Each structure stands twice: as C-alpha cells, then as structure tokens.
Amino acid sequence: MPDELHQPRYAESFRCIGPECEDSCCQGWAVCVDKATYKKYRATPSLRRLASRYIELNSRGRDNFKYARIKLDPNRTCPFLDPDQLCHIQKQHGADFLSKTCSRYPRALAQFNGRPLQALFLSCPEAARLVLLSPRLLSADDDRDFPLENSQTLAGLQPLSLQLRSFAVQLLQDRAYPLWQRLFVLGIVCRRIHELTASQQMNRVPQLIGQYAEMMAQGLLRPHLDGIPPRPGLQFDLVLGLIRRRLQIEQPEAGFAASVADFLVGIQHSPDTPPQESANHYHNAYTGYYQPFSQTHPGFLENYLINYLFRTRFPFADTVDCVEPAIDPLRSHLLMALHYRVLHSLLIGAAARYGNDFSSTHAVQTVQRFARSVEHNVGFLDELKTLAAAPDFRNTDGLALLLAN
Ligand code: SF4
Fold first, then answer.
1. What region does 2 belong to: left with phi over 0, alpha with psi -120 to 50, or beta?
2. 102 pocket-lining for ligand 1 (C-beta < 6 Å)
3. Closest residue (by CA) to atom 7 of ligand 1?
4. For a surface tag, which of 121, 148, 228, 344 has the fewest beta carbons within 10 Å of its beta carbon?
5. Pair (188, 93) in one structural domain
6. Which pLDDT tens digit goes with each residue over 154-196?
7. For ligand 1, is residue 78 a contact (CB within 6 Å)?
8. Parent domain of 368
9. Strand ranges inside 158-285, DSSP E
10. Do the domain assignments include residue 8?
C-alpha cells in the first residue's frame, strides 16, 4: 500500500465561497507569516513600511512557518484589508505574495511520516459545513486506505503511527457503538500502548490493536461499556472550569461568547444554582435535546473527530506544522477527548437553549465558533496540552468522567 494513499479526499473538495461567506478569515486572530514571505515583504519597497508597522516577529519562538505575525487593528481585523474587505496584498501583488497561512487557509497541511497530509480548519464556516454535514466524511476510497482488518498482517510493514491511525479512523466510524464509547475504547488502547512503550514492549502493539478490533467487532466489550455510568455533575464542573479558563486567557470572539451564553441558558445555570440542580439540568439537556439531534445526525461529531485526527496528525501529540515530534498516543488522545468534551457540552447546552428549533445550522455555528476561539488560541491549547499530560484522566475512571454521557 503506497503511503501517498493515506490521505482523506474530502479536504480536496473545499471551495471558498468568498463574498457569500458569513464570516471573514481575516478577523479575530493574529495570522502567522512564514519566514520567506516576511523577507519578501521587507524586500518589496511598496510593502516594507506596512510590514514594519503591522507585522511583528513572533516572540513565542520562531520556526519558518510561524516566523512573524500580523498585528490586528483595534477592531481585531487584519490591517491589510481594504475598505471593500479585500486583501490589499493580494490585490496589489497577486496571490503569490500571500503568506502560507493566508494562501492555505482553511486547509490544514502537515507532514505525516514524511508525506503531505491535508485536513480542514472548521473555523471556516464553509469547511465546517462540508465536514460536519457529510453523512459519511470518508469515501469508499478513503476506507480502503485505513484497512483495520489488515492491521495484524501489516505489522512490521507499517510504522506504528499508521497502524494506530487506521485503527482510530475505523473505530470512530463504527456506529454500532455510541460515539463516546468509541472514543473511550480508543483511550484504553492508547493507554495500553503507553504502558507497553514504557516497558519496552512495542512489539506487542500490533497484537493489542488487533485484539481490540476483534473484541469490538464481536461486541465483547459492550456489557462493560454499557455499564459505565455518566457523572454529569463532575463533567459539568470540569467543562465550566475549562470554559471559564478560556474566557480568562483572552477575550473571545463575540460568537463564542454567545455560544457560552447559550450553553448556560440551556443548562439553566447561574452562580446561585445548587450543583445538583445544574447536574440534573445538564443530564436532562443531553437526553432530552442533544440525543435526538445526534440520532438524526450520526455523522456530526464523528466527522469532527475524524477531521481532528488528520488535522492534528494523531497520534503525534503536537499540532506544530513544521516539526514532526515523536508519537504520544495517550496525550494525543486526551487532547482530542478534552476538545470533544468542551464542544459536546456546548452543543448539549445549545440544543437545550433552542429546544425543538435546534437545527444543524445552530450546531455547525457552535462548532465553528468553538474552532475559532479554542482551536486557534495558543494559550488555551497550551493549558489543554498540560492537562492531557497530567495524571487526572490517565486512568479508566478519568476517561469515563470525561467521555460518558
Ligand atoms: S472563512 Fe472560509 S469560506 Fe469564508 S472567506 Fe475565509 S476561506 Fe472563504
């Protein structure tokens, strides 16, 4: 199986809708400028003055991709936008003058085992619709690239990262199980791999993956999974704490603040609400409002997670574009599970807030706002990474608290 086939097709079909777009990818965040583009701007007389005024070198550590960044104006808009909301740089100098970030967005391009990998940033509303509303995100051709049934026979032929990603992709698409159970089992497998790695028994990993694939296919884990109780009180507290932390780190986009308000109204939570009452509302919001939505849109969060796998190069732990770190399945999984937890809870709250009117339009908007304010916020992502490396969720109990509904 040639490596170049390990690439999902859906991202290739994205088309920017330009003036029809309800959002702007030039608003609300500091855009990175790669080193070659920065030097080109400095060397172009008509851009030199603007570049020194509006582009600053990256103080958070420089690599070629994130060498510098554009400073937003007081309205949190890109200063290179003209009054018609068109990019001055592109208009004057052509698309070749755009930075890698600007020319690629919303495509998330990365290297995976030395091969290019493409996914989409769901902060773009059109990309969010394309991904979240697909009945099945991966095509039949994609499925042939992630052959779970061959994971044992391919052992030794494929790097561990590919074996584990094939397993994860297949597992997350197995609709015989609720999505949270698929994510839970993936967490258990990642934790076992973590233990095998620590005890220098990596040669047992293919067998482990094959065993879990078999157990899931035969339904052997179902009694155990169905017996895991949800803990809505602890889960709600956790989510509330994470959302508060995000709001403290930096003022979020107005859209995300509105989604948080919807969440709190939907759960009927205020600072005076007794904890047990909030827990009950949260649980009832899930069963009464979100569950019916997820039953009619079974691919919605499943697609989010599959795109997440590709976008972040699971099972590599970092999302840095240029450097390929060592794989870290457990940390990588927990980071994904934390994203899932916050987003899923926001959707639960939104579903309760809008009741019978809750639609896929509300749901896509919640994801898009989350992606803008969480997935692109470096400070908050750093905190999630630290949490994913801490012992809190590195056991069955912690995973269940995070995922079970
Ligand atoms: S957010 Fe997406 S659809 Fe909208 S202008 Fe940017 S790339 Fe195009």
1. beta
2. no
3. 16
4. 228
5. no
6. 444 568 888 899 999 999 999 999 999 999 999 999 999 999 9
7. no
8. 137-405
9. none
10. no
Question: 206 in ligand 1 pocket by Cβ < 6 Å?
Answer: no
Ligand 1 site, residue 31, Cβ cutoff 6 A: no
The pTM assigned to this predicted structure is 0.89
The preferred substitution site among 13, 14, 16 for testing ligand 1, maximizing ligand atoms within 8 Å of CB, is 16
CB of 126 closer than 6 A to ligand 1? yes
C-beta 329 within 6 A of ligand 1: no
Residues 258 and 403 both lie in one domain:
yes
Tokens for 334, please give them: 């927990």
Total of domains in the chain: 2
- Closest C-alpha to ligand 1, atom 6: 25
- Residue 184 structure tokens: 């839970």
Element housing 240 (H / E):
helix 232-249
Q: What is the pLDDT of residues 34-51, one digit of tens each?
A: 999 999 999 999 899 988
Where does a domain end: 85, 104, 123?
104
